[in-house]
Specification:
With 156 residues, the chain is mostly beta strands. 14% of the residues lie in helices and 39% in strands.
Amino acid sequence: MRNIIQQIITLYPNDNLIVAMESGNNASGRPGSLLPGPNNNPNSGLFQLINNQGAPEEAISICRIASITITSSTYNNAITYLPAPIPTPTGCDANCEAALRSYLPVGTPSVDINAGGQTVAQGTVLRSEYGMVVIVGNDNSNPAFVSLCKAEIVNK
């Protein structure tokens, strides 16, 4: 998720985000920075949103993010994803992640993903990457980056 947030900060600096948490809470605002900084710090654990005037708002634990939706924007093809780790993890979490990616191949339409008692993404699977799927609306609108380890209920 940190890798995607770093890119969202750069590629969508003036767009509004909805960050859905695994608890069912939401936070919204514009992308601010990763903490502790700088934004390319591989040990950052918080994502701070800013308001329309650029003032810092809440800081969000990256480990608890279920999805990040960029509202009123379209998917940017410049976004890159991390490769699967080597060796590939094993165990229950790894099995669940692999099963979800298999269940949600690119192009799957009419997907609803729920986490924390709320819908965190609706639309078509645009990307299916290790640990994450990207769900978009018509014309690749409102991309939602969904952490597969937080997905609880998937309908298609």
